[in-house]
Structures are given as structure tokens and as C-alpha cells.
Amino acid sequence: MNRYFLSDTTALTVRTLRHITRSLDTIITTVLTPVALMLMFVYVFGGAINTGSKYINFMLPGILLITIASGISYTAFRLFMDLKTGILERFRSMPIARSGLLWAHVITSMVANVIALVIVIGVALLMGFRSGAGVLAWLAVTGILLLSTLALTWLAVIPGLTAGSVESAGAFAYPLIFLPFLSSAFVPTQTMPGPVRWFAEHQPVTSIVDTIRALFAQQPVGNDIWAALAWCVGVLVVAYVLAMTAYRRKAA
Question: Which of 5, 13, 83, 108 has the greatest number of C-beta atoms within 10 Å?
């Protein structure tokens, strides 16, 4: 590792963060989809869905994951544009840590997504979301959301490095945005037909959603938290290895 890795990454992170401050519309766009879904599901469909609790409390964890999925699409977009402008070629002639570029985009994604998540939770509070969770439960929720964001951000780095066009760089996030709809995020899985129910109960979103929901409701999390952590760590490790492999090929 380059001995100037930390200073190089910090400088590159400041650079990418400036792009966000100059185009706040990216954060606004990121929160528009989850907020619109909250409004639609709570005020249009919420009355017809029996979850045994206030519907905004039930569906907020799924909305938070959709917020993350919306945000990481911009990570792939920004990284693709950096490579398109030839920044990697310039780095080859400079004594800097090349992996600092990837980490800068990952850290920027974390910051942008935290801002988006705070905004979405704020809107949910205005819509009636309430939780009696204590400090430790909120810290656990924060940790799971940050770990999910980190894993999905490294996943976003892969199309950012390998996509053939700017459209395909960001389009990879669409399946991730759709995945919560095939989980326990919006309706109990017991209401789903057999094959759909099996998929919903065994995909990563359900364990993450159920864990966050239980923490908000001050209920036992059971084995869901271990499944959620296993999925997040597994995706993170695989995505990181594939992203670094693709980056080395680009930088070769």
C-alpha cells in the first residue's frame, strides 16, 4: 500500500464531495423516489394492508433500503465519468495511491447516503413514524444501514468500472430498487403465493428489513440479525474483490 494512502484518499474524497455540494440535485433526486413511495403506500395502499401495526412503522425499513439503492447508482455514474475524462491515465504519472480513487468514491457515497437517509427518516416522522427504541437500538440500526450502504457501494463500483455507457453504469441499481418489493418490506410474506414467498423469505432484504423493524419496535431480533450481517459481509467481500480486480485491469 502506498505510504501516502490516507492523505491521497482524503484529498480525492474532498474532491468528490465538492461535486456533491455543487450538484445537490443528486441528493434531492435520491430521496424523491423513496419519499414518493412512502406517500403512495401510506396514504393510498396503507389502509388496505393489515400488518398489525401502524403502516409507516412497518414499511420504513424497506424504504430506507430503497433510499440506499437509489443513492449508490450515482456512485457508479460518478466513477464512470471520472474514468471517461481520463483521470486514471493522469494518476499513472503521479506518485499517489491509485486505490485512493475508489475509496474516495466509496466514502463520498457513504456521506451522501447518510444525508439522504436522515432526510427520509425526517419525512417519515412528519408522516407519523414513531419508535420507542433506545440509543443502543438506534445505534444497531445505524450500523446495519451503514454496513448495507458500504456493501452496495462496492457493488456499484463494479459497473462504474466496467460499464460501456453512462446509462448502463447507473441502470444496475434498478434491480436493487425493485428487490424490496419481493420481500417483507411492504407486506407480510405470509400473504404471498408459494414460490414468491420462498424467494422473499430467503433473500437478503427480508432479513435486513425484519431486523431493523424489530429494533424499531423493541422486539427480539432472533436469528434475523445474523442472517442480515452475513448477507452484508458476504456481499461486501465479494464486491470488494471483484471491484479491485476490475480496477487493477483498468490501471494496468
Answer: 108
pTM metric for this prediction: 0.89
Residue 175, CA atoms < 13 Å, CB-side half-sphere: 6
**CB 16, CB 103: distance < 8 Å:** no
Task: Indicate the number of domains in the chain.
Answer: 1
Between the alpha carbon of residue 101 and those of residues 16, 34, 90, 223, 250, the distances in Å are: 9, 29, 12, 37, 13
d(CA 162, CA 135): 41
Q: State how far the Cα of 66 lies from the Cα of 71, in Å rounded to an integer.
A: 9
Pair 64, 116: CB distance under 8 Å: no
Q: CA-CA distance, 83 to 141, in Å (whole number)?
A: 35
- Encode pLDDT of 30-64 as tens digits: 788 899 999 988 888 776 777 767 889 999 999 99
Longest CA pairwise span in the chain (Å): 61
Taking alpha carbons only, the member of 234, 240, 233 closest to residue 99 is: 240
Q: Could you tell me the CA-to-CA distances from 48 to 44, 183, 196 in Å, in that order?
A: 8, 18, 20
